[in-house]
Amino acid sequence: METCWEEAGWERLAPGVARRRMPEWDETVGVVVGRTGILVVDTGATLRAGAELRTAITRLTGRRPTRIAFTHPHFDHVLGSAAFAGCEVYGATGVDELLRREREALREDAIRHGVGRGAATEAVDHLVGPHHLVSGELTLDLGDRPVLLANVGPGHTAHDLAVLVPGRPEVVFCGDLVEESGTPQAGPDAIPGHWPAALGRLLALGGEDALYVPGHGSVVDAAFVRAQRDELAARFGVST
């Protein structure tokens, strides 16, 4: 029987695939349910948020999550990781070193954006980095369904990972390579000259009929991603 995601405040995207737009920073957290495993895409901005997500997913599915994929290493997408004890964590190549090296910067970024100092310190101190790194593509087996992790960056950061869930429709979790609720944010760790090409790789990955799930905002289609790619190319003066 299909889980009633909507009744619990989630958005059902496809059978066994849902996402939640988190309060405060509107970051997307995704979940993919397979027969033998459950993948969580990003983990929220604090340990408390991560714990609430873990509890909700466990209640809705009757099972604990088993794997986590980080779409990129910003505080609102990774700092809930320690709440998912026992999960195998996946990220783009190099994100493990960055999270070890830049923990103080990560903490200060969280505080600057409104996370309480104590909550930010606790989450950074207990942050669980990736156990598995993706340099190209990696397929996870969740039992009755494969899920593809694809290192499509750099772009929004140097370590952008997309998650493709095959099916009808196909679902692509884009992280902050795509934003619908505002202009894509190019912080000091963005690689603007490569961002449009990363969106081209996203489009090749999902195709014309996929649902594209942005890091912030409503689910979009291929035409939206294509338009955002062209806008970024014009903004940063690069070709598509």
TrEMBL record:
What Pfam families does its record include? Lactamase_B
Query: Entry's InterPro entries?
Result: Metallo-B-lactamas (IPR001279), NDM-1-like (IPR050855), RibonucZ/Hydroxyglut_hydro (IPR036866)
Ranges for domain Metallo-beta-lactamase come to: 26-216
Q: Which named protein is this? A: Glyoxylase-like metal-dependent hydrolase (Beta-lactamase superfamily II)
* Organism for this UniProt entry: Streptomyces demainii
